[in-house]
Amino acid sequence: MPIASIAPFTERIKFFDGQRLFASDLQFLEQFNREMRWLHNQSLHQAGIGSGFAVSGKKDSRQVRIEPGYAIDSSGREIVLTQPEVLQVPPVANDGQGNPVYYDLAVSYRESNLKESETRDGVCVSRSAVRYRETPVFCWVELTPTNDPPGSEALTTGRQAKLQKVNADLETGKRIRLARAEVLNCKLNRPLELAHRRNAKPVTQPFLFAGRTSTPSAWDALVTGAGITISLPVDTSSAQFRSQPRYFAHVIGNRQVTVTLPGPTSVMLILDGFSRLESSPTFVGFKFSLLIPQSLIDNKIDLTAVADALKMQNVLKDWYVEWLGIEG
Hints:
Number of strands: 21
Number of helices: 3
Oligomer: single chain
């Protein structure tokens, strides 16, 4: 449900003593609150079963039983069943070749044809309904065949289109799948399958995202007490983490580099060391650093000159950081 479909703009309703109210005023208020609730459901939940809607049906049964439940469709509308419901199995013998026919039992929101549960007399107007009982719509959806059975007649264009539309409603969440049935000789050929049900609330699980920095990279270099520390900021915003993840990272690049020192003198260095993530990483990035111990650099070489050369000559431009973030 797009936000713009609710109203051109949102308004806060305010009443005052002595105000003359019309039925349309209160009807608009009820409709607005309902559609805002639907928008909430659609934005924060996925279409599926929230609770209940247990379905039972054993092999050779000619009917199935549906228990009370609550579900949400793809438009955010609530589908509520308050009393158990019993449905007959589709009266189908076979597919014309002696094979069973497969159906999905689906439930959907009833948009019209609601039953009046209370009526009242009006002032100078005829009696009218003031309450409608909301009940869901149950239906058996025949699965769209991928291929016609050998020797059978092809489905008519109209029936094929109808089957495809109803099956599309199941895939998009306009209809909620409760169970799958295998029907043969007008009864269940095996117990109902429940593996195809979808929950409105996804199962909580870790969210993983991996990435790498682009090249060329602008590394920084600084002399520390234990050697030279090179560092690079890593942007992880592409992962769209919602909370602080746990990061793992390592650097990839040719460890044999050549720098030009004052003199001028060209020196070949073997750079390696201990990697770590700087403190206070966030859900949009962190700072990666690599400590190159002084023991890996010739004692006769000035560390400051090496650090300046690494930074100014950008000899590490082809190095990049591969990272993994785990949220959850």
